[in-house]
Amino acid sequence: MMRAVICNTFDGVDSLVLGTMDSPKPRPHQVLVDVHAASISFMDCLMVAGKYQLRPQPPFVPGTDAAGVVAEVGSEVTRFKPGDRVICGNWSGCYAERVVASQDATVLLPDGVDFETGSTVRHCYGTARYALLDCARLQAGETIFISGAAGGVGLAAVDLARHLGATIIAGVGTPDKAGITRAHGAQEVIVYGSEDLRQRIKDITGGKGVDVFFDNIGGEIFSTMTRLMNWGGRMLPVGFTSGEIVSVPMNLPLLKNYSVVGSYWGAWVERFPQASLDADAQLLAWVAQGSIKPHVSASLPLEEFRTGMHKVTQRLAQGRTVLRVR
Fold first, then answer.
1. What is the DSSP string of 61-82?
2. What are phi and psi of 213, to 5 degrees?
3. How many other CB atoms are found less than 10 A from the CB of residue 247?
4. Residue 171 placed within a domain
5. Does one domain contain both 135 and 114?
6. Helices in the chain by DSSP H: which ranges?
7. How large is the greatest C-alpha to C-alpha distance in the chain, in angstroms?
């Protein structure tokens, strides 16, 4: 038996319970991991409310990202052995003392990277890396605007864009979030709750608009940015935390020859597992070298999962909130 956060019904965070359930068993191509830390994502919160495009069959354990130690390997696993320190991911299952994951979604954790930091890398930085490098082909010297820039994926995008040499404009909802984005590399910050986004983008870019728009929010911000792209720019719809999915008048991309490029990291991972593994390994190497610096704003015991998840849903988290499982 193991301790786990359990979702019995799709009624949101407050309906979750901390209980016990049977420990999972690894299939031939899976590893069983003793979880030390699990990070909380906005996707986890949507999933337990039945608002994500995937709906696991209840009862299930939420959680997409974990870090820990391999306890057991399936009969066809060749890349890992018991005792290996790893990060791993799954659509669910990580808010528990043990989780199973495909060996294609598991990566060795460098000795210099702790479990809490490791648990924040795969989803956040994987999403940012896929969007910025594979989808947008972001170049050094280009200007990027990142909405929701203080959240988990947003701050990872800021950090990675800095590493890639871009000029970064961070968009945040409240002034208290400006500092963390500047600390991770943003040269300019727009508080779109109190500033005119359109005018500020024009002022910062000299009227040209941005080369890349990394959007976590959707809604009115996305609509506004459809008219603020530079020639040949790339818009990246990554998430819709506003709850509003908007349409693009297609004459606007035509006039500026800009592109709208979907950036669904999870679907890419399933289709190209080896490329994903290589990307994860590169990200962890950068973390170990100190080239990128994941930010854990809160580290809570597993028992306080509701507090952590509410921090995420209420937009109070900066960077990643992590659950300490062991």
1. ---SEEEEEEEEE-TT--S--T
2. -120, 115
3. 8
4. yes
5. no
6. 42-48, 115-118, 126-129, 152-163, 178-183, 197-205, 219-225, 251-256, 265-271, 273-289, 305-313
7. 61
- CA-angle at 110, arms to 109 and 111, nearest 5°: 115
**6 is a domain residue:** yes
Q: With the C-alpha atoms ordered 146, 150, 153, 156, is the resulting torsion angle positive or negative? A: positive
CATH code of the domain in which 133 resides: 3.40.50.720
Residues 23 and 82 in one domain: yes
pLDDT digits (tens, 9 = 90+) for 82-113: 999 999 999 999 999 999 999 999 999 999 99
Tell me: pLDDT of 242 over 80.
no
Same domain for 130 and 253? yes
Domain span holding position 39: 2-120+295-324
pLDDT for 201-223, tens place per residue? 999 999 999 999 999 999 999 99
Does the residue 49 lie in any domain? Answer: yes
CB 226 within 8 A of CB 252: yes
Helix (H) or strand (E) holding 106, with range, is: strand 106-108
Statement to judge: residues 145 and 230 lie in one domain: yes
Can the peptide bond before residue 175 be classed as cis, meaning omega within 30 degrees of 0? Answer: no
Q: Among 224, 247, 265, which residue terminates a domain?
A: 265
Structure letter (DSSP) for residue 88: E
pTM: 0.94
Please check whether residue 286 lies inside any domain of the structure. no
Count CB neighbours of 38 within 10 A.
Answer: 32
Considering the domain architecture, whether residues 34 and 107 belong to the same structural domain is answered as: yes
Please check the confidence at residue 60 and state whether its pLDDT lies above 80: yes
Angle, vertex CA 51, rays to CA 49 and CA 57, nearest 5: 65
